Amino acid sequence: MAVARITEIIGSSQKSWEDAVKNALERANKTLRGLTGIEVTKMNAAIGNDGKVSEYRAHVRITFILEG
Amino acid sequence: MAVARITEIIGSSQKSWEDAVKNALERANKTLRGLTGIEVTKMNAAIGNDGKVSEYRAHVRITFILEG
Amino acid sequence: MAVARITEIIGSSQKSWEDAVKNALERANKTLRGLTGIEVTKMNAAIGNDGKVSEYRAHVRITFILEG
Amino acid sequence: MAVARITEIIGSSQKSWEDAVKNALERANKTLRGLTGIEVTKMNAAIGNDGKVSEYRAHVRITFILEG
Amino acid sequence: MAVARITEIIGSSQKSWEDAVKNALERANKTLRGLTGIEVTKMNAAIGNDGKVSEYRAHVRITFILEG
Amino acid sequence: MAVARITEIIGSSQKSWEDAVKNALERANKTLRGLTGIEVTKMNAAIGNDGKVSEYRAHVRITFILEG
Amino acid sequence: MAVARITEIIGSSQKSWEDAVKNALERANKTLRGLTGIEVTKMNAAIGNDGKVSEYRAHVRITFILEG
Amino acid sequence: MAVARITEIIGSSQKSWEDAVKNALERANKTLRGLTGIEVTKMNAAIGNDGKVSEYRAHVRITFILEG
Amino acid sequence: MAVARITEIIGSSQKSWEDAVKNALERANKTLRGLTGIEVTKMNAAIGNDGKVSEYRAHVRITFILEG
Amino acid sequence: MAVARITEIIGSSQKSWEDAVKNALERANKTLRGLTGIEVTKMNAAIGNDGKVSEYRAHVRITFILEG
Amino acid sequence: MAVARITEIIGSSQKSWEDAVKNALERANKTLRGLTGIEVTKMNAAIGNDGKVSEYRAHVRITFILEG
Amino acid sequence: MAVARITEIIGSSQKSWEDAVKNALERANKTLRGLTGIEVTKMNAAIGNDGKVSEYRAHVRITFILEG
After folding, report:
1. Which entry of B18, D37, J57, K24 is 20 to 30 Å from L49 by CA?
2. pLDDT tens for each residue of L14-48
3. Does I6 sit within 8 Å of L20, measured CB to CB?
4. Do B36 and C45 touch (CB under 8 A)?
């Protein structure tokens, strides 16, 4: 039977949390294969000197199938 | 005094979590009346073979007034 | 060494949760200085008589540096 | 063997949380049979313009036996 | 897009927790269609006068597709 | 320095949760000395065949000083 | 759109938890305006030398509208 | 009214978690009377040098009636 | 002093959760050395069209010693 | 197989949390045998009139083997 | 009866978490009176380019009496 | 935008938890680059036959930047 692994990464973006998740997923695809699902577990952000969000950050738990 | 009930449903969408919530709410309106509030309790997604999100899923707790 | 404080506020919007967070942040900037970060801890909404979201609400924990 | 179901409802009262629980239970008895237990999971309240509680609310998880 | 609902039931058995889950699932199949998944969230038991388990109980969250 | 211990007991009452806590505390005083504090961690109840509460139950964590 | 803030206070009473919540709310009304809701998050108590409750304490999260 | 106490013990077994729970319960019966219920709160295990489970461990919360 | 790492994997089985844990452990032994313990953190399952469990899944946190 | 029990105690110290844990452990050794492990679950402190810590307190869960 | 308030601050230090807590407490004493207790709820740290801790951070919940 | 990963390791020490964290961090620096932060999520310890701590253990979540 298949066995999967879960890893937690943090994506970031200057545009939105949705984009931060997308960036996390893109990076994961560079080194992992067999991705089957994600879950967003935390949405936070850094605030700049102007009092606005300077970096959106999304914590993402990624599930992927372990081969062989 | 009014009594309300809470039910948990999962909406899905190919576009976004915001849309998944909207789909959940639309479906709830077909069978429930007196909806007063929602809370998003989980945001996850299925990933397709191309490594991208194939289906956004939002867990939504829905509160509605129980009549009579 | 710097000491920071965390306060919890609730932003609202008729458009989206993203906008509700922005409104919370804008209001915080009126009375607080030295904001360094935020975390979204809850996303809920009020539903109107038409069964649609009438007000998006985002609970936001805000961190800011305490001066002197 | 018996199978039970758990449903979550919110009772309200202008007098007390104890009364809000009672109202929730009374309403549940109108549509459900075989109730065996309850658990209070949240006690909150709405505050009126006079700064006093205008409505006590109790979240109640209700267990009841599923027949046949 | 499909919308699913989650309901929580409690199965019981005189043999084991595994059997209690099975009983919960069998009962759910009598009234629900489109079941897609379950999660065991609690395993407890009643103890008889002889100090042994008299009834195994498993809390099970069941997900099923809402039609139409 | 003093060392304290925490023990968890469940009081019951046919009148109210407040009374169930009192019963728990009275029983604790029979066998324990040096009680300094309590915390109510759960309020549940058994429901009788008439659909009303037959027994209020309060889970209470009790702190008491360990002598010598 | 309105922005609200949540603050956590602890009310106390020699009579009951219900009274401890009321005391917390009364004190909040002295310095805060626009209160809209409360939630009781913890109920504990100090025990006196006679083994009885000497002071009921209720932790209360208070929501109030931030003006302007 | 009856007052109960909850104690937490850890049973172990070389066969299974089910057996570890049974061992915990057997040991509890040696020193406690009036057991009414158990809840399994954690299932872990030690792994031996061969990479297989060498000891199953089950954390069990046991409820028993306090006499007199 | 030794340093260990914890990784989370999901084992699956068509027979039971016990077997799903075993499969997770067997797969872990292929790529990891120095395993010392496991903890089962979630037990869920996929349901087939016949309303029965088609795949048991166990989330397992695995601890292993980091060499050198 | 061995069965262990977990008990929760609170150690205190005027010097540090590390010392409060040590005091808790020393006291436990007076009445318990077969201690195998501890976990610190809470670190709090009382503050004196001078605004400084007057007593460090550490909540400690202690595991010990139950004999025979 | 006295009413207290809880506020959450983050102390930092280049030496240790113990020192970070002390810094948080010192800062709190500048603007707050009637402090009665603290609880450490989180211990994290920033890591510098040399791979070592550059700043210890302790999240501290502070309780203080509200006057009049 | 940068993407980071979080991994959980357990450091140990015969001296203190502070030292256990340091050991965990030192080991992480051998195989990971771009460490930016840590969080201590659990502090436990093994107790020896003399009833004293034989090994302090600290669970540490480590965040590090994923290159390229």
Report:
1. J57
2. 999 999 999 999 999 999 999 999 999 999 999 99
3. no
4. no
> With an 8 Å Cβ cutoff, are E45 and H38 in contact?
yes
Q: Tell me how close the Cα of E10 comes to any Cα of chain H, in angstroms.
A: 14
Strands (E) in chain H, as ranges, are: 3-13, 35-47, 53-66
Partners for D (CB, 8 Å, 3+ pairs)? Answer: B, E, F, G
What's the rounded Cα separation, in Å, for the pair C3 and K30? 12
Name the pLDDT band for J64 (thresholds 50, 70, 90). Answer: very high
Is chain E touching chain K, with at least 3 CB–CB pairs below 8 Å?
no
Determine if the pTM surpasses 0.90.
yes
Give the residue from chain K lying closest to C68, CA to CA.
Answer: K27
Residues 6 or more apart whose CB falls under 8 angstroms from that of D46 comprise: D53, D54, D55, D57, G36, G37
Please tell me the distance in Å from I59's CA to the nearest CA on chain L: 16
Q: In which region does residue J34 sit, left (phi positive, over 0), alpha (psi from -120 to 50) or beta (all else)?
A: left
Q: How far is the C-alpha of G20 from the C-alpha of G58, rounded, in Å?
A: 6
pLDDT of amino acid C1: 64
CATH 3.30.1660.10 for domain B3-66 = yes
* Selection from K11, K3, K9 nearest residue K61 by Cα: K9
Strand-strand pairing, D35-47 and H35-47:
unpaired
Instruction: Determine contact: E7 vs chain I, CB below 8 A.
Output: no
Q: Give the confidence band of B1 by pLDDT, cuts at 50, 70, 90.
A: low
Is B65 in contact with C47 (CB distance < 8 Å)?
no
Return the residue matching tokens 């102007």: A50
Residue B29 to residues D28, F6, L30: CA-CA distances in angstroms? Answer: 22, 48, 56
Spatial separation of the C-alpha atoms in residues I48 and A9, rounded to whole Å: 32
Q: Do chains B and K touch (3 or more CB pairs under 8 A)?
A: no
Structural domain spans, chain C: 3-66
- Establish whether this prediction's ipTM goes over 0.90: yes
| Nearest CB to J14; choose among F1, F5, F66 | F1
In this complex, is the C-beta atom of L35 within 8 Å of any C-beta atom belonging to chain K? yes
